[in-house]
Write a structure and sequence with these properties.
The chain is mostly helical. The protein is built from 5 helices and no strands. Helix 1 runs antiparallel to helix 2, helix 2 packs antiparallel against helix 3 and helix 2 runs antiparallel to helix 5.
Length: 127
């Protein structure tokens, strides 16, 4: 609704609060980055920094989840096959995204992120 970031960075308490809420949602629904996306886009960070933070968090969270599944002995070969099958799509998407970036303003990028979060929240409530 208000895509412009706030003028100054939030107090560290709010970083901890949104991180805890993200951990709670990650444990229940595997949706831990949703509160962090909202929180980061409200901070005076550049879009590049936000993307880097979120990509790092998703990588760390996914790695922990995969290691936990392996440690519990629940990892299935079908999961590995599906992941390998997805590699070409990720590579092509990355290639085209890097060579033909969308010309979306920073404010519209923030609006798009907020809209996606609202849709995910509504789907979560509906399901």
């Amino acid at each position: 609704i208000q895509p412009k970031p706030k003028g100054k960075m939030a107090h560290p308490f709010y970083f901890a609060l949104f991180s805890a809420f993200g951990g709670f949602l990650a444990g229940l629904f595997s949706l831990g980055t949703i509160p962090l996306v909202y929180f980061f886009y409200r901070q005076p960070f550049s879009l590049e920094k936000i993307r880097t933070l979120l990509l790092s968090l998703v990588c760390i969270i996914t790695s922990i989840r995969i290691l936990s599944v392996i440690a519990l002995g629940e990892f299935k070969v079908e999961s590995l096959i599906l992941a390998v099958m997805g590699i070409p799509a990720v590579c092509l998407g990355s290639y085209f995204g890097r060579n033909n970036p969308l010309s979306i303003s920073e404010n519209n990028t923030r609006r798009l992120a907020f809209s996606i979060l609202v849709i995910l929240g509504l789907l979560l409530i509906a399901i």
